[in-house]
Known about the structure:
This protein is of the alpha+beta class. Helices cover about 35% and strands about 20% of the residues. The longest helix has 25 residues.
Amino acid sequence: xxxxxxxxxxxxxxxxxxxxxxxxxxxxxxxxxxxxxxxxxxxxxxxxxxxxxxxxxxxxxxxxxxxxxxxxxxxxxxxxxxxxxxxxxxxxxxxxxxxxxxxxxxxxxxxxxxxxxxxxxxxxxxxxxxxxxxxxxxxxxxxxxxxxxxxxxxxxxxxxxxxxxxxxxxxxxxxxxxxxxxxxxxxxxxxxxxxxxxxxxxxxxxxxxxxxxxxxxxxxxxxxxxxxxxxxxxxxxxxxxxxxxxxxxxxxxxxxxxxxxxxxxxxxxxxxxxxxxxxxxxxxxxxxxxxxxxxxxxxxxxxxx
Length: 305
Protein backbone atom coordinates (compact mmCIF):
# COMPACT_ATOMS: atom_id res chain seq x y z
CA UNK A 1 0.00 0.00 0.00
CA UNK A 2 1.31 3.42 -0.98
CA UNK A 3 1.44 5.98 1.80
CA UNK A 4 2.35 9.65 1.61
CA UNK A 5 2.29 12.83 3.62
CA UNK A 6 3.48 16.38 3.05
CA UNK A 7 3.89 19.46 5.24
CA UNK A 8 4.83 23.02 4.26
CA UNK A 9 5.18 25.71 6.92
CA UNK A 10 6.06 29.38 6.69
CA UNK A 11 9.43 30.05 8.30
CA UNK A 12 10.01 32.38 11.24
CA UNK A 13 12.20 34.63 9.10
CA UNK A 14 9.38 35.13 6.60
CA UNK A 15 6.78 35.66 9.31
CA UNK A 16 8.94 38.30 11.00
CA UNK A 17 9.43 40.23 7.76
CA UNK A 18 5.96 39.79 6.36
CA UNK A 19 7.12 37.61 3.47
CA UNK A 20 4.94 34.95 1.88
CA UNK A 21 5.89 31.29 2.14
CA UNK A 22 8.03 30.45 -0.89
CA UNK A 23 8.01 26.66 -0.47
CA UNK A 24 5.58 24.31 -2.19
CA UNK A 25 4.97 20.59 -2.47
CA UNK A 26 2.76 18.23 -4.46
CA UNK A 27 1.86 14.55 -4.11
CA UNK A 28 -0.10 12.47 -6.65
CA UNK A 29 -0.97 8.81 -6.06
CA UNK A 30 -1.19 6.72 -9.21
CA UNK A 31 -2.83 3.50 -8.12
CA UNK A 32 -1.66 1.02 -5.51
CA UNK A 33 2.02 0.86 -6.46
CA UNK A 34 3.01 4.28 -7.84
CA UNK A 35 3.26 7.77 -6.41
CA UNK A 36 4.84 11.01 -7.63
CA UNK A 37 5.95 13.77 -5.27
CA UNK A 38 7.90 17.01 -5.48
CA UNK A 39 9.18 19.83 -3.30
CA UNK A 40 10.15 23.28 -4.56
CA UNK A 41 11.78 26.22 -2.82
CA UNK A 42 11.42 29.66 -4.35
CA UNK A 43 14.65 31.61 -3.96
CA UNK A 44 14.11 34.18 -1.22
CA UNK A 45 15.81 37.01 -3.07
CA UNK A 46 13.32 36.89 -5.95
CA UNK A 47 10.00 38.73 -5.91
CA UNK A 48 7.76 36.06 -7.40
CA UNK A 49 9.55 32.87 -6.40
CA UNK A 50 6.46 31.68 -4.49
CA UNK A 51 4.56 31.53 -7.79
CA UNK A 52 7.47 29.69 -9.42
CA UNK A 53 7.73 27.05 -6.69
CA UNK A 54 4.01 26.29 -6.84
CA UNK A 55 4.06 26.02 -10.65
CA UNK A 56 7.16 23.82 -10.61
CA UNK A 57 5.81 21.32 -8.06
CA UNK A 58 2.30 21.12 -9.53
CA UNK A 59 3.22 20.94 -13.22
CA UNK A 60 6.07 18.45 -12.85
CA UNK A 61 4.12 15.99 -10.69
CA UNK A 62 1.02 16.22 -12.85
CA UNK A 63 2.98 15.58 -16.04
CA UNK A 64 4.75 12.56 -14.54
CA UNK A 65 1.50 11.14 -13.16
CA UNK A 66 -0.14 11.44 -16.58
CA UNK A 67 2.70 10.00 -18.65
CA UNK A 68 4.26 7.24 -16.52
CA UNK A 69 2.36 3.98 -16.88
CA UNK A 70 2.83 0.35 -15.90
CA UNK A 71 4.32 -0.24 -19.35
CA UNK A 72 6.94 2.54 -19.08
CA UNK A 73 10.58 1.43 -19.26
CA UNK A 74 13.30 2.94 -17.10
CA UNK A 75 14.46 5.10 -20.00
CA UNK A 76 10.93 6.29 -20.68
CA UNK A 77 10.35 7.21 -17.04
CA UNK A 78 13.58 9.22 -16.88
CA UNK A 79 12.65 11.00 -20.11
CA UNK A 80 9.22 11.87 -18.68
CA UNK A 81 10.90 13.39 -15.62
CA UNK A 82 13.18 15.42 -17.87
CA UNK A 83 10.23 16.60 -19.92
CA UNK A 84 8.35 17.54 -16.74
CA UNK A 85 11.22 19.79 -15.67
CA UNK A 86 11.29 21.42 -19.12
CA UNK A 87 7.53 21.93 -19.06
CA UNK A 88 7.63 23.44 -15.58
CA UNK A 89 10.38 25.90 -16.48
CA UNK A 90 8.66 26.86 -19.75
CA UNK A 91 5.41 27.54 -17.90
CA UNK A 92 7.26 29.67 -15.35
CA UNK A 93 8.80 31.73 -18.15
CA UNK A 94 5.39 32.12 -19.83
CA UNK A 95 3.90 33.32 -16.53
CA UNK A 96 6.66 35.88 -16.10
CA UNK A 97 6.04 37.20 -19.62
CA UNK A 98 2.27 37.31 -19.10
CA UNK A 99 2.76 39.34 -15.91
CA UNK A 100 5.27 41.69 -17.49
CA UNK A 101 8.09 40.47 -15.25
CA UNK A 102 11.61 39.22 -15.92
CA UNK A 103 12.24 35.50 -15.64
CA UNK A 104 14.88 35.92 -12.94
CA UNK A 105 12.15 37.05 -10.53
CA UNK A 106 10.76 33.49 -10.64
CA UNK A 107 13.71 31.36 -9.49
CA UNK A 108 12.95 28.07 -7.75
CA UNK A 109 14.48 24.72 -6.92
CA UNK A 110 12.73 21.46 -7.79
CA UNK A 111 13.24 17.94 -6.44
CA UNK A 112 10.92 15.20 -7.68
CA UNK A 113 10.57 11.49 -6.89
CA UNK A 114 8.65 8.71 -8.60
CA UNK A 115 8.24 5.63 -6.40
CA UNK A 116 7.13 2.64 -8.46
CA UNK A 117 6.92 -0.45 -6.25
CA UNK A 118 10.41 -0.44 -4.71
CA UNK A 119 12.07 1.50 -7.55
CA UNK A 120 12.99 5.17 -7.13
CA UNK A 121 13.33 7.54 -10.07
CA UNK A 122 14.20 11.16 -9.42
CA UNK A 123 14.91 14.60 -10.82
CA UNK A 124 16.76 17.32 -8.96
CA UNK A 125 17.65 20.99 -9.42
CA UNK A 126 18.89 23.22 -6.59
CA UNK A 127 19.65 22.81 -2.90
CA UNK A 128 16.63 20.86 -1.70
CA UNK A 129 17.25 17.13 -1.35
CA UNK A 130 16.13 13.51 -1.40
CA UNK A 131 16.91 10.64 1.01
CA UNK A 132 15.93 6.97 0.63
CA UNK A 133 15.33 4.14 3.10
CA UNK A 134 16.66 1.10 1.26
CA UNK A 135 15.37 -2.44 1.63
CA UNK A 136 18.61 -3.16 3.50
CA UNK A 137 17.34 -0.79 6.17
CA UNK A 138 19.91 1.92 5.43
CA UNK A 139 19.20 5.64 5.12
CA UNK A 140 20.98 6.92 2.02
CA UNK A 141 21.45 10.34 0.47
CA UNK A 142 20.11 10.32 -3.10
CA UNK A 143 21.01 13.85 -4.22
CA UNK A 144 23.61 16.51 -3.40
CA UNK A 145 22.77 20.16 -2.84
CA UNK A 146 23.64 22.21 -5.91
CA UNK A 147 25.47 25.37 -4.93
CA UNK A 148 28.52 27.15 -6.30
CA UNK A 149 31.71 27.89 -4.34
CA UNK A 150 30.14 31.02 -2.87
CA UNK A 151 26.99 29.21 -1.75
CA UNK A 152 24.71 30.46 -4.51
CA UNK A 153 22.01 28.00 -5.58
CA UNK A 154 21.68 26.54 -9.07
CA UNK A 155 17.89 26.86 -9.60
CA UNK A 156 15.64 25.15 -12.11
CA UNK A 157 16.21 27.69 -14.87
CA UNK A 158 19.88 26.66 -15.20
CA UNK A 159 18.50 23.87 -17.37
CA UNK A 160 19.51 20.33 -18.28
CA UNK A 161 23.19 21.09 -17.88
CA UNK A 162 22.69 21.20 -14.11
CA UNK A 163 19.68 18.91 -13.61
CA UNK A 164 20.36 15.50 -12.08
CA UNK A 165 17.95 12.84 -13.31
CA UNK A 166 18.33 9.16 -12.60
CA UNK A 167 17.21 5.87 -11.10
CA UNK A 168 18.45 5.06 -7.61
CA UNK A 169 20.65 1.97 -7.67
CA UNK A 170 19.03 0.12 -4.77
CA UNK A 171 15.40 -0.88 -4.06
CA UNK A 172 13.76 1.39 -1.50
CA UNK A 173 10.94 1.25 1.03
CA UNK A 174 10.39 4.99 1.50
CA UNK A 175 11.61 8.34 0.23
CA UNK A 176 12.09 11.69 1.97
CA UNK A 177 12.07 14.98 0.05
CA UNK A 178 12.69 18.33 1.74
CA UNK A 179 13.65 21.92 1.07
CA UNK A 180 17.07 23.01 2.27
CA UNK A 181 16.38 23.88 5.93
CA UNK A 182 14.68 20.57 6.73
CA UNK A 183 17.01 18.57 4.49
CA UNK A 184 20.09 19.92 6.25
CA UNK A 185 18.94 18.92 9.74
CA UNK A 186 19.48 15.30 8.64
CA UNK A 187 23.15 16.10 7.98
CA UNK A 188 24.47 18.03 11.02
CA UNK A 189 27.96 19.40 10.63
CA UNK A 190 29.30 17.29 13.52
CA UNK A 191 28.63 13.98 11.74
CA UNK A 192 29.38 14.89 8.13
CA UNK A 193 32.77 13.15 8.26
CA UNK A 194 31.63 10.20 10.36
CA UNK A 195 31.13 6.69 8.98
CA UNK A 196 27.36 7.22 9.27
CA UNK A 197 26.95 10.81 8.11
CA UNK A 198 23.16 11.04 8.31
CA UNK A 199 21.17 11.64 11.50
CA UNK A 200 19.55 8.20 11.38
CA UNK A 201 17.34 8.57 14.47
CA UNK A 202 15.66 11.63 12.96
CA UNK A 203 15.46 10.16 9.45
CA UNK A 204 13.74 7.13 10.95
CA UNK A 205 11.23 9.39 12.73
CA UNK A 206 10.26 10.91 9.37
CA UNK A 207 10.44 7.84 7.14
CA UNK A 208 10.01 4.49 8.89
CA UNK A 209 6.38 3.37 8.37
CA UNK A 210 6.40 1.52 11.70
CA UNK A 211 7.68 4.56 13.61
CA UNK A 212 5.11 6.70 11.78
CA UNK A 213 2.36 4.19 12.65
CA UNK A 214 1.10 4.07 9.07
CA UNK A 215 -0.77 0.79 9.40
CA UNK A 216 -2.48 1.88 12.62
CA UNK A 217 -3.16 5.57 12.02
CA UNK A 218 -2.73 6.05 8.29
CA UNK A 219 -1.30 8.99 6.36
CA UNK A 220 -3.33 11.67 8.12
CA UNK A 221 -2.10 10.77 11.61
CA UNK A 222 1.51 10.64 10.37
CA UNK A 223 1.15 14.05 8.76
CA UNK A 224 -0.24 15.59 11.95
CA UNK A 225 2.61 14.07 13.95
CA UNK A 226 5.25 15.51 11.62
CA UNK A 227 3.46 18.85 11.38
CA UNK A 228 3.57 19.20 15.17
CA UNK A 229 7.24 18.25 15.25
CA UNK A 230 8.16 20.78 12.55
CA UNK A 231 6.25 23.51 14.41
CA UNK A 232 8.34 22.77 17.50
CA UNK A 233 11.70 23.30 15.75
CA UNK A 234 13.48 26.36 17.09
CA UNK A 235 13.90 29.30 14.66
CA UNK A 236 17.56 29.24 15.70
CA UNK A 237 17.80 25.82 14.03
CA UNK A 238 15.56 26.42 10.99
CA UNK A 239 14.30 29.95 10.30
CA UNK A 240 13.52 29.45 6.61
CA UNK A 241 10.28 28.03 5.19
CA UNK A 242 10.02 24.30 5.94
CA UNK A 243 8.79 21.54 3.67
CA UNK A 244 8.92 17.76 4.11
CA UNK A 245 7.30 15.11 1.92
CA UNK A 246 7.56 11.37 2.51
CA UNK A 247 6.29 8.63 0.21
CA UNK A 248 6.55 4.89 0.76
CA UNK A 249 5.15 1.45 0.14
CA UNK A 250 4.11 -0.72 3.10
CA UNK A 251 4.26 -3.81 0.86
CA UNK A 252 8.03 -3.41 0.54
CA UNK A 253 9.94 -5.42 3.14
CA UNK A 254 13.07 -3.81 4.58
CA UNK A 255 15.70 -5.18 6.94
CA UNK A 256 16.52 -3.96 10.43
CA UNK A 257 19.99 -2.76 11.35
CA UNK A 258 21.54 -3.08 14.81
CA UNK A 259 20.21 -0.81 17.57
CA UNK A 260 23.51 1.07 17.47
CA UNK A 261 22.69 2.28 13.95
CA UNK A 262 19.47 3.93 15.16
CA UNK A 263 20.89 5.32 18.42
CA UNK A 264 20.97 9.04 19.17
CA UNK A 265 24.51 10.32 18.46
CA UNK A 266 26.74 11.40 21.36
CA UNK A 267 26.50 15.08 20.43
CA UNK A 268 28.85 16.48 23.15
CA UNK A 269 31.60 14.03 22.13
CA UNK A 270 31.08 14.72 18.43
CA UNK A 271 31.18 18.47 19.07
CA UNK A 272 34.45 18.18 20.97
CA UNK A 273 35.94 16.05 18.18
CA UNK A 274 34.83 18.51 15.52
CA UNK A 275 36.21 21.51 17.44
CA UNK A 276 39.52 19.76 18.05
CA UNK A 277 39.89 18.91 14.35
CA UNK A 278 39.03 22.50 13.44
CA UNK A 279 41.64 23.91 15.85
CA UNK A 280 44.31 21.60 14.46
CA UNK A 281 43.63 22.84 10.95
CA UNK A 282 43.32 26.49 11.95
CA UNK A 283 46.34 26.61 14.28
CA UNK A 284 48.79 23.87 13.21
CA UNK A 285 51.73 25.55 14.94
CA UNK A 286 50.11 24.91 18.33
CA UNK A 287 50.36 21.17 17.73
CA UNK A 288 53.86 20.92 16.26
CA UNK A 289 55.46 20.06 19.63
CA UNK A 290 52.85 17.34 20.20
CA UNK A 291 53.59 15.88 16.75
CA UNK A 292 57.34 15.93 17.40
CA UNK A 293 56.90 14.17 20.73
CA UNK A 294 54.89 11.47 18.94
CA UNK A 295 57.55 11.13 16.27
CA UNK A 296 55.38 12.76 13.58
CA UNK A 297 56.60 15.25 11.03
CA UNK A 298 54.77 18.62 11.28
CA UNK A 299 52.69 19.45 8.22
CA UNK A 300 54.97 22.40 7.34
CA UNK A 301 58.30 20.66 8.14
CA UNK A 302 60.89 21.18 5.43
CA UNK A 303 59.07 24.15 3.92
CA UNK A 304 60.81 27.48 3.46
CA UNK A 305 59.62 30.15 5.86
